[in-house]
Design brief:
Layout lengths: L9 E3 L2 E3 L3 E6 L11 H12 L4 E9 L18 H13 L4 E7 L16 E2 L13 E2 L2 H20 L4 E6 L3 H6 L14 H19 L4 E7 L10 H13 L5 E5 L6 H7 L11 H11 L3 E3 L6 H9 L5 E3 L1 H6 L3 H6 L14 H7 L32 E5 L3 H12 L3 E5 L9 H4 L9 H12 L4 E3 L6 H6 L4 E4 L3 E3 L12 E2 H6 L7 E6 L4 H12 L3 E6 L10 H11 L4 E5 L2 E8 L2 E7 L7 E5 L1 E5 L2 E3 L2 H6 L11 H6 L14 E4 L9 H12 L3
Parallel strand pairs: 3-4, 3-12, 4-5, 5-8, 6-7, 8-9, 9-10, 10-11, 11-12, 13-14, 13-16, 14-15, 16-27, 18-25, 19-20, 19-25, 20-21
Antiparallel strand pairs: 1-2, 17-26, 22-23, 23-24
Helix pairs in contact: 1-2, 3-5, 7-19, 13-15, 13-22
Length: 680
Amino acid sequence: MATDPLLQPYQLKHLTLKNRIMTTSHEPAYPEDGMPKDRYRMYHEVRAKAGVALTMTAGSAAVSRNSPPVFNNILAYKDEVVPWIKRLTDGCHEHGCAVMIQLTHLGRRTHWNKGDWLPAVSPSHEREPAHRAFPKKIEDWDMTQIITDYADAAERMQAGGMDGIELQAYGHLMDQFWSPLTNTLDEPYGGSFDNRLRYFFEVLAAIRKRVGSEFIIGVRYTADEVAKGGISVEDGLEISRRLRDCGQVDFLNVIRGHIETDAAMTDVIPIQGMKNAPHLDFAGTIRAETGMPTFHAAKIPDVATARHAVASGLLDMVGMTRAHMADPYVVQKIMEGREDDIRPCVGANYCLDRIYQGGEALCTHNAATGREQTMPHDAEIIPAAEKKKVVVIGAGPAGLEAARVAAMRGHAVTVFEAAPNPGGQIRLTVQNPRRRDMISIIDWRMAQCAARDVVFHFNSWAEATDVVAESPDVVIVATGGLPHTDVLEAGNDLVVSSWDIISGDVKPGRNVLVYDDAGDHPALQAAEVIASAGGHVEIMTPDRSFAPDVMAMNLVPYMRSLQNKDTVFTVTYRLTKVLRDGNKLKAVIDSDYMALGKEKEFDQIVVNHGTIPMDDLYFDLKPLSSNLGAVDQEALLAGRPQAMASNPNGAFQLFRIGDAVSARNTHAAIYDALRLVKDI
């Protein structure tokens, strides 16, 4: 602790930050009625309690009514936000954690059919592709009102006890003024570099006048749009110098890139398979140029990279935001010398992709994140009053989470796995080198289980007699599923599954139809294998868009891999039959809109239609169980132990989780396990 760069305090103006680790501003979409209520507060409090020095709330709290809350943003333009901010701030301050909030006007990065249905405003009529609204070109009276709105919102945050605010200027209204790509105004706010910066400094001056000289104000901004005709590196350096020289800004939080498309945003906030910390050196350049307190976050998922950022003088405060969604205890574990125990962020981006699809941020393999009101994080899992023998069948993510949590509760746990190695479907996932970090979901759980003496039997196809021989009190079936390809009117025997291609069990064809009726990763992963082997691939879906469950930012690497190869994407067509035609296959294609009977020739047809549960063992065990496999769903949702006992002759409780129930995803499997086993 005495020498670790990450654990040294940092003085920001009058505020002492107890270490160099922060969570940067992000909107997990947890507000209720636009307010950061208990769910929001508890999410930040857990991380504050575990040692983070600064938690930056809100991925853009909206300062104005004509900044519609497209991400379920905090509504900073309402007076009623103040007591909720006060509760959140006080809760974090109790643990010595500083709290700030990001304020913004979204400008064109929203849509008119949100909030109060007011038109989006921007310095031009240029539409933002991501949110599709054509904005109104901002007028002088809009600008006057928005300046007042910013000052009002800052004053509310100060009244709520915040340690400071951060103004957002990447992809939002402020830098829409800065960038020649989004500012077509006439003088005095358009045209020259000075004119384009003018409005921001008027907003800043109004805020500073309202909150006084001591309140901390920072700016998170793009210092290089990495876009032809946009804000250049030279522009960004000059903006940085002006932020320093104005005397009104206390810290810089550096962004590189632009965010109005999925592809651009993924370069700003990289996901798995992309380079770690790609903009770290650039942020260090800004710090060296300005001498200003400098913050930065962009795929800094591990302690070693974070430590390098501070030790090398590149940053003053390092953002580990997604890392803290995976494990709130990052700082605590560093302090305790338990870095190897940190649950790793695998870059799956389930958090951000869900937000941009209108959901809430959840972590692929920490089901307690965002559910702090109902689900325990690891430090909150308490020993069971009665120790039991728990048998788990299957060592995929669901089974390993069940085993891990049961062992943390103090139960004696035995796991049977038919394969020689743990992992289940994740072992297929990591056949794609870009997604190899997903194996950390398995490796981390195996290490946790090993530390708690969980007994594993690999290469063991468990039968009912094997399970009964263990004399279990609880049996959890997590056997997963197998590909479901029996979905056509005819020709099911002529197709192969996406798993066959991904695993290498079937050689890719030369002219291939990948029929995706599930919309998840395996179809695109199989298509990538085929295209990379030189085959022509047509990816067909009956849906109006392809791969909806892959979601926005995860789709980007697939497109970058596939679009420069011999691939075609076809939507709204349904494969109904496959017929043999010599040594070729004839696909019969219809749609949900009309009967077509179109025919097209391929040499291989791949079907992706989810999985069918491997549930034979479950049904063999069901009559032997005390609960006959039933789940008291009211008790499950209320956090009470399962107590159903409909079979007096049953010797054990029986449950099944994950894809052994139905085809879902990794997060659902882990959540199944956590919320069941935490009460066993």
